[in-house]
Amino acid sequence: MPISILLADDHQIVRVGLRALLEAEPDFRVAAEAADGLEALALLERLQPDVIILDLMLPGLNGLEVSRQAPGLAPRTRVLMLSMHSNAAYIHAALRHGVSGYLLKQANMDELVPAVRAVLRGEAYLSQALSAEAIAAYAEQSAAASDDDYERLTPREREVLQLAAEGLTNAEMAERLVISPRTVEMHRARLMRKLNLRNHADLVRYALWRGLLPLEH
What we know:
Distance between the termini: 42 Å
Number of helices: 10
CATH topology of the largest domain: Rossmann fold
CATH architecture of the largest domain: 3-Layer(aba) Sandwich
Number of domains: 2
Oligomer: single chain
Shape: globular
Radius of gyration: 17 Å
Largest sheet: 6 strands, parallel
Structural class: alpha/beta
Strand content: 5-15%
Strand order of the largest sheet: 2-1-3-4-5-6
Order of helices and strands: EHEHEHEHEHEHHHHH
Helix content: 40-55%
């Protein structure tokens, strides 16, 4: 039985390269590809892959939020985060949200297959360039992370937050999330109140600060 893998990255050229490396292994099969986080969640629930290789900075829904929701949709799927960010804050957040491995995009190509096999065995995997000591130190400093206002948002509120920060209108968000514009407005009002945001500019600045959007957004 081949090992099924879901690829989630918004750059097609990255997905093509990953597919080629993975399918060179006789027991690996790329079951599907997703270009944004919402699509990744839908495919994750439908396909129940063994592994999802997940870009951190996905449009629609970022990789951290996908990894947060993944256990409820596909409990046996292992999550391998793929990121250009070596910052300990991102790594700790990923590990805290159930990611089994964290692989840097600038890592040697030879790391990809061992990383996939490691997470399949139930092991944690970090790119060789990362400092485990730095990550552990950051984790100690972040012991109060559960008190973060962002953690009080519902999954739907976090989805609306990211889509609104990306510039979608209420009608466009409603279409993407398959809910009514009125429901979108309700979620938006609640998240604004919970995060103490006054306007759309505050919302975008918060999303950038939180790492939900790339800094060049």
